[in-house]
Amino acid sequence: MPTTKQTKTPTKTVAAPKAAVKKAPVKKQPVVAATKAAPTVVKAEAKTVEIQTKLVRHQNKNVMISPRKLRLVADTIRKMSPSQALSRLKLTNTKAARIFVIALKNTIADAKNNFGLNPDTLKFDSLRVDEGMKIKRMDKSHGSRFARGLKVKRHSRIEIIVKGETQ
Q1: What is the pLDDT of residue 47?
Q2: Is 81 contained in some domain?
Q3: Of 32, 38, 46, 165, whose CB count within 10 A is highest?
Q4: DSSP letters of 116-166?
Q5: Do residues 158 and 129 touch, judged by C-beta distance below 8 A?
Q6: Nearest CA-CA partner of 128 in 161, 86, 87
Q7: What is the CATH number of the domain that holds 123?
Q8: Would you call 4 helix, strand, or coil by DSSP?
Q9: Residue 164: closest CA among 114, 127, 128, 111
Q10: pLDDT value at position 91?
């Protein structure tokens, strides 16, 4: 009998590839605390706000300064707002400026406290300086005629009208 040689071939054991297991994606759900209620949506109604403009009037009928001197100052502040005019007049060294500072402070305070206006929105509606009463006295040193011997002390009337919006 013939002998046959059996040769063993080395065999490698290869592990079979594992089947790829696909996992379904996990859906993340928002976490809602059990103690808090879901927020409620409230629709806000749009309100129409009417801005009212009011006029504030300040009068001083007997100011002991001539109207000409007051008009020189009034013309410089007429186009400003009252708060700007007040700061400008505080730096002006005249009697007319000191009189206007007092009048403007009173006007702004009246507008704010009595009429409820916002001081930042105030504007001059009119600023008038008129002639007030006159004091006439005779002075013999100025001449013999009546017109020349007369000293006239002029007075003024200030009228400030300011308009502004309510607060």
Answers
A1: 73
A2: yes
A3: 165
A4: -B-GGG-EEEEEEEEEEEEEEEE-GGG-SSTTTTEEEEEEEEEEEEEEEEB
A5: yes
A6: 161
A7: 3.90.470.10
A8: coil
A9: 111
A10: 96
* 149 in any annotated domain: yes
At residue 93, the 3 state secondary structure works out as coil
Q: Which residue has the tokens 């009212």?
A: 52
Return the SS3 of 96.
helix
Residues forming beta bridges with residue 14, ordered by sequence position = none
Instruction: Give Dmax (Cα) for the chain.
Output: 182
Whole-model pTM? 0.66
pLDDT in tens, the chain (167 residues): 555 455 555 555 555 556 555 666 666 666 555 555 556 666 767 777 677 889 999 999 999 999 999 999 999 999 999 999 999 999 999 999 999 999 999 999 999 999 999 999 999 999 999 999 999 888 776 666 556 677 889 999 999 999 999 87
Q: One-letter amino acid identity for 69?
A: K
Q: For residue 2, which phi and psi values (nearest 5 degrees)?
A: -75, 145
Q: Distance between CA atoms of 71 and 129, rounded to whole angstroms?
A: 6
CA angle, 136 then 104 then 58, to 5°? 65
Residue 22 resides in a domain: no
Residue 69 sits in which domain range?
53-165
Residue whose structure tokens are 């309100």: 47
